[in-house]
Model the fold of this input.
Amino acid sequence: MFFKNKRGSTLVLVIMVMAVLSILSFALLNVVYSDVKQVSFLEKDTKAFYIARAGALIVSDYILESGNIDYIKNNAPIEGTIDKGSYEVYINGENTIVSTGKVDNVTETIKLSLTIKKNKNLSDLFEDDLAIAVNEDIDRNKVDVYGNIYSSGNIYSKQQNDKDQTEFNFKYTSPKIPNYEGFEEIYLKNKDEYTIYNSKGFNKIEIKKGNLKIDTTNQETIKIVVNNLSIKNGDIEIMGDGNVVFYITESGEFENDFNIPEMVFIVDKNASMSFKNIDSGKKDGFNGFIYGPEATVDINHPNISIQGAIITKNLIYKEDNSPVNNSQIYHKKFPNDLDMELEVEGDKSFELGDWGSD
Done:
């Protein structure tokens, strides 16, 4: 009797242990399955995140390169596939890129803000080592450049720090010319003098052995817009501590001996600046910085010596092998006291802001 009860108790114990083990196994299986699902979800979620990020960068690269944000807005959503996943991108009303990445049924949405890029300062355009930036081929054998050349074409006799089309893209934008309409004309000869006190527009300024004074005592910057500027044996004098910028809308001519204080010349598209017989040994010669990315600068004359830097579309210089001396361009670092923000034309330009998420 006792023996039979012992066997029955053992059987009951075994059944209870098996039941407990079954419950534990089922629970463990659920935990493992949940972990597997979680790992799979996290893997897909991570992929979706990076696909969304890649989609945002693809669109932002296009906008930064072209400035054409309206194309993206008008053709949204911009769709694509990456590594078994996909993305959809659109621009919201705040100029923010919204990109959604998807892997199977898992999605991630991120945002990348765009801010309208401020106009560049002149000091950003005239980089420390730049003597000439030109949108064409240039031959160092035919123009003596003491500094670095940046060209979107070929540079013949290229030096170590020059940058040609393989590493430089001519992206300079035409300047906006201040709307100072003026029909006044200034003619200075012999010892004539004329003083400008405020920003102003002129049809023509011609200085022949005269002296043009610009009084900046009460002005931080004086902007002079002139259709045609001609300086032949004449001088410009700046009075006060302010800055002076000339905007040339048609032509600028510099010839023979003159004194021009260090300043900036902004040249409109399709306008030109030309230099003839400049000997810096007699007077100070030309000391300045020329910005005309859609203009022409002509130095195809003897005895040209320029100190500063030039950014232009077309640079005309001596092409033959005549014994006439080459033109000389001496790089000079852009001075802080000439710096100013330059307003430019064209489409809006953007720069990247901050990343975010929904």
About this structure: The radius of gyration is 35 Å. The chain has a mean pLDDT of 85. The chain is about 20% helix and 40% strand.
